[in-house]
Design the sequence.
């Protein structure tokens, strides 16, 4: 015979069982969600250039397993990188970007909303910006003769093409300043570097802004490099950009990505003759310039590649570094404010702390 007390005991046992089952189910759901989040790829956009393609070695080196991060590499044209990051769509989480371009566009990029695009960590310095020509009358400017105002004025009198607000235009601004010429008096034609190269080759332009691919192609076609960013002792810092929300939600993965970058960089640069195959295969498939190994080696000489977080801190994050972010930010601010593109200076981006 079942007593009232027995009934109460049975009800209590059933209740305890149901609560335990619910708890186990909830734990399983949390566990499954955590596992799903862990397996969500970090989508990294790269452009097919010699200095941003090292990451294609990630799988070959087993770095996803080493750091516990799935990395999905997406190839995008350089000029589409920042818009893709800023769009807050489902295409890209993070990418390489030029500090100069970021500073120039950051105000417009972050005009709306409370989830800004951030420049979070510098990784390398691009020293390949310059100008090319096919016109034998254009003088070559060097560290030795760049202080000659007459020669600089002669150079600036030629028909020059460069992308608007690019490092190329900033070089021309610095040139004009040295020669006492108003920058606004220089009739610069706004053109992409690829279009500028073709225009210079066909004599529509006398001088065209160029990166490493355009320099490589110009030399192949019997052109000349007549001005390089190195002449001024500066370079364009390249680092990682992402939305603030992405960094907050994927901080561990992004820190691991930075370590992957260093590992890939060290692997390739440690033996270019034997460790460049994967990178070169990617560039031959995706890049406009089909590098041979000697051309690839030459192209890499236009970059400075720190191989550790410590080296990044000393050379770029520190105000005393050879390629300090503060120095580059000051150059960009001087240019932007002089042409009326900014009313106040852009701040130096705050760099994330990298766990070691």
Sequence:
């Amino acid at each position: 015979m079942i007593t009232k007390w027995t009934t109460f005991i049975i009800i209590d046992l059933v209740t305890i069982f149901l609560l335990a089952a619910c708890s186990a189910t909830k734990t399983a759901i949390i566990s499954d969600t955590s596992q799903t989040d862990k397996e969500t790829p970090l989508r990294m956009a790269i452009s097919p250039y010699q200095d941003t393609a090292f990451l294609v070695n990630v799988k070959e080196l087993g770095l996803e397993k080493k750091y516990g991060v799935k990395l999905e590499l997406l190839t995008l044209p350089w000029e589409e990188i920042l818009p893709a990051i800023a769009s807050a769509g489902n295409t890209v989480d993070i990418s390489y970007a030029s500090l100069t371009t970021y500073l120039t566009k950051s105000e417009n990029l972050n005009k709306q909303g409370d989830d800004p695009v951030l420049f979070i960590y510098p990784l390398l310095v691009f020293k390949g910006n310059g100008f090319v020509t096919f016109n034998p009358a254009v003088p070559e400017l060097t560290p030795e003769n760049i202080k000659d105002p007459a020669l600089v004025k002669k150079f600036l009198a030629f028909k020059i093409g460069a992308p608007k607000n690019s490092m190329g235009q900033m070089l021309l601004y610095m040139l004009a300043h040295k020669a006492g010429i108003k920058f606004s008096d220089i009739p610069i034609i706004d053109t992409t570097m690829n279009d500028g190269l073709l225009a210079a080759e066909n004599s529509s332009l006398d001088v065209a802004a160029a990166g490493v691919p355009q320099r490589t192609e110009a030399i192949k076609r019997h052109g000349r490099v007549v001005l390089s960013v190195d002449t001024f002792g500066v370079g364009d810092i390249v680092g990682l950009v992402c939305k603030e929300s992405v960094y907050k939600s994927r901080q561990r993965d992004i820190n691991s990505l930075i370590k992957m970058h260093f590992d890939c960089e060290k692997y390739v640069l440690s033996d270019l003759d034997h460790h460049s195959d994967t990178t070169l295969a990617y560039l031959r498939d995706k890049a406009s310039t089909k590098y041979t190994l000697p051309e690839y080696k030459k192209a890499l000489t236009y970059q400075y590649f720190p191989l550790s977080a410590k080296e990044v801190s000393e050379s770029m994050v520190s105000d005393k570094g050879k390629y300090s972010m503060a120095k580059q930010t000051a150059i960009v601010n001087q240019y932007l404010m002089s042409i009326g593109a900014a009313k106040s200076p852009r701040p130096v981006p705050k760099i994330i702390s990298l766990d070691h």
